[in-house]
Structure formats: structure tokens, C-alpha cells
Amino acid sequence: MAGRMNTRNLITIVSVTILVGTEILGAALALGWALGGVFELSGLWSRVLIGLFVAAGLYAMVKFFRHAAAVEPIFDK
Length: 77
Prior knowledge:
The protein is an all-alpha fold. The protein has one domain (7-71). It contains two helices and no strands. It has helices at 7-38, 43-71. α1 packs antiparallel against α2. The chain is rod-shaped and about 55 Å long.
């Protein structure tokens, strides 16, 4: 069974994930919008690109959270 919850590490991980996640999602949105504009894609294809990049950004956020939780354990042993 897991030990006591380390709230200091949990707050740190959640805060950093919010900070990094905002940057990742902002960059993903901007990249999809910019590529849609550069290649003069229709609105639908621009939104598809934005959706793909946002999905990749969300995946990167989840991976980041998992790696951060491995380095800063949420539960003490």
C-alpha cells in the first residue's frame, strides 16, 4: 500500500504541469493556425491541423506529468 501523500510534491507537479501545459497547448494552437495559413488551407483543414497538434500537445502533457511524478514522488514510502 502507498504511504502518506506528499502534498508539497503534488502541488509542485501540478503547478509545473499547468505552466508547461499552457505553453505546449499555445504552441500547438499557433502551429496549426500558422500552417493552415501558410499553405492556404480551408477552415476545415486548418481546424483539423489544430486538433491534431492539440492532441499531440495533450499527449506531451500527460507524458510530462508522468515523468515529473516519477522524479518527485507523490506518495512517500
